Amino acid sequence: MNSFRFDDAIEGIRMSPIVSISEEAKHKEPEFFNRTGKKMVLFQRGEIDFPTPKYIVDAAMMALELGKTKYPKSGGEDELKDAVIKKLSYFNRAEGFSRDNVVCTYGGQEGLELLFKLFQCKKGAGFAPCWSCVLENFVPYAQTDFAEVPLREDFTIDFDELERIIRDSSFFYLNTPQNPTGKLFTEDEVIRIAELCHKHGVFLISDEAYETITFDGHRHFSPLSLKFDNIISVFTLSKTYSMTGWRVGYAVSRNKRIIELLRLGNYTQTAGVTTFVQYAAKEALSNHAESDRHIKLMNEEFCRRRDSLYEGLSSIPGIKVNMPSGAFYLFPDFGDLIPQKLSLNDRKLYIYHRLLDNGVVSVYGACFGKFFNDHIRLSYSATPHDVIEEGINRIKNAVQ
Amino acid sequence: MNSFRFDDAIEGIRMSPIVSISEEAKHKEPEFFNRTGKKMVLFQRGEIDFPTPKYIVDAAMMALELGKTKYPKSGGEDELKDAVIKKLSYFNRAEGFSRDNVVCTYGGQEGLELLFKLFQCKKGAGFAPCWSCVLENFVPYAQTDFAEVPLREDFTIDFDELERIIRDSSFFYLNTPQNPTGKLFTEDEVIRIAELCHKHGVFLISDEAYETITFDGHRHFSPLSLKFDNIISVFTLSKTYSMTGWRVGYAVSRNKRIIELLRLGNYTQTAGVTTFVQYAAKEALSNHAESDRHIKLMNEEFCRRRDSLYEGLSSIPGIKVNMPSGAFYLFPDFGDLIPQKLSLNDRKLYIYHRLLDNGVVSVYGACFGKFFNDHIRLSYSATPHDVIEEGINRIKNAVQ
């Protein structure tokens, strides 16, 4: 039965290159350790090295003790939805929502997957570089005809090119703050993108996974605060509350028809999100005193890491790096350090391999679309300060 | 933007009729209470009125305390997979599996949904009556061309008809013990079905959600104990361990290619199953002393309920009812009590409405396919003994 051809959508899903990279690193680790007596420096991970705050864990335990272990309400528990609506007002300055505008999902992942699926086989677009999971998972799974709109070298937007592509699309995918660049799109940029979508009757899928991780006094601007009904925002508790393994998030839109379809899709796929986890999520969103303190603490640490990594990279001749205002990634350009004569395929992996040989694990730019082959993504979400310094020294050695 | 036509697969999903029925009952409740001073008797639910056993809740809390809150391993935690492999040997007498044969899913629901999706737009088949979620959710979501093979009046199999349909299908869906009949397919029946599938190169999707809920000394036989690689069994902890709201289950096959595709699908849809829930599931499957005691206690209670419901229904002239050996449903035939002159559509709802007017909530047979319109599903999963007696009296009044 091994020759049977299953559904193209599932057959087309690719393994995340980041998983392969982590496996390659694991294979290389013993040889590197024997040679240097040191561990690898891991800059490839999306995991966070903070624990889930205790008040959220306690809320989960309380819900378990109260027997919140029966089937969840389809679309999400009312108490969680009410907490989401208050949070949208409190944090996103987005008003005018009722329970019918909200659906609870397994992280941001399920919200995005279902949205891409809503546009099965249609044309979509998003900025390049683009989160690898969109390209490797959602696009093949929903058989999207996906166009990449490249950001400029300084990660600003070419609005003419954007409009040219949006005009032809059913939806546009925006991720702000962005993986892999750490770019926080400004309020002005978000409004112009949303207006372009509105003008051309295009849906805007807004992935706001990193909304609370912003630096230097900058604040995330959610398109959801605009009064358009073509916008669907996808949120997750994974990053904000160090809850990556809890798998809980929510999608919100003024368009109730879309929320209803997401609810049906969520029910069909999973019969709803784990009941007591929803009560923990409710506590995370509602307990402002605790969550503001947690977010502040985490952001201060992330900001310190960003600063050292940015300064370190800037000090290495030949590396061009933009200062990000959000998320926990840097996406430097190593183009000047790659030999000119290499083939495109060798070029894509050249810096990645140089770094790996020197004990630094990174993700090569080709994982994020077709326009940024000379770049490397470095994540500092789980890399303490001293390890970052060691990493910088190794990068220096690797490229000199 | 409200005229936009989204993906047919999601647009085609129907609301579970059982949800509408529960809502209709809720609307009727005040009027019924005013008239009679009594509550409705609820026979429509799939929920279980046992709490999750304490040793499983404790395992979840322990996992939370140990910080098992990071991203799950794609496909499932090794410790859970190892527990599944041991359980397959201990309970299902199915041997020869390794971690690559197992994938962890959000309940049985996600396993089944992904399997239907694997056969997107292809021909599938299953026995009628058939679990409503297959017909209302999985079939439209995967755009399956689904054929129903009716069981006989006594719920035995017409193997000639079965072979005629299987020959033409890509997969066959088997649910044993079965929702809505409570039929436990015998070892001989399961083997003959599996052999027919094997003979015609057809995949067998085996839904074993109720595997531990069996009565009168009968045991569930899993096709997974056969050595065919065309069989995929889907399990959930929902019913066995009163864990409906936890959303955890697993799929197993000797065919590693299918398990790999399920893993990719699960990752794409949800990024994997909540990490600490997997550790609770591991404890549920591994702690035989506790789980055997829990299952015995639950089955004794279910058996008592089945007996009263069966005896009560049998005592009412005009109702034909088969004695089920598993799950927690009865599916009596009210055909002789329905006026002959009714149109098909009125016929479908006649008994359901008679019962509802008399304060009994049930699910009408048309929810389970096209062949059993005169039947009614009564679930006793959340209906205590004294309420069942009250229900029987009301049914008696309703049809006399």
Instruction: Kindly estimate the percentage of residues of chain A that lie in beta strands according to DSSP.
Output: 5-15%
Query: What is the number of independent domains of chain A?
Result: 2
Total count of helical runs of at least 4 residues of chain A? 13
CATH architecture of the largest domain in chain A: 3-Layer(aba) Sandwich
Structure description:
2 copies of one chain form a homodimer. With 400 residues, chain A is an alpha/beta fold. Chain A has 2 domains: 8-50 and 292-399, Aspartate Aminotransferase, domain 1, CATH 3.90.1150.10; 70-287, Aspartate Aminotransferase, domain 2 (3-Layer(aba) Sandwich). Helix content of chain A is 44%, strand content 12%. The first copy, chain A, is built from 13 helices and 12 strands. Chain A has helices at 8-11, 17-36, 54-65, 78-92, 107-118, 132-141, 159-166, 187-199, 256-270, 275-286, 288-314, 344-357, 385-399; strands at 41-42, 102-105, 123-128, 145-150, 171-175, 203-207, 231-236, 249-253, 329-330, 360-361, 363-364, 376-379. A 7-stranded mixed beta sheet of chain A has the order 2-8-7-6-5-3-4, with helices on both faces. In chain A, helix 5 (107-118) packs across helix 9 (256-270) and helix 11 packs parallel to helix 13 (385-399). Chain A starts with 7 loop residues before the first helix and ends with a helix.
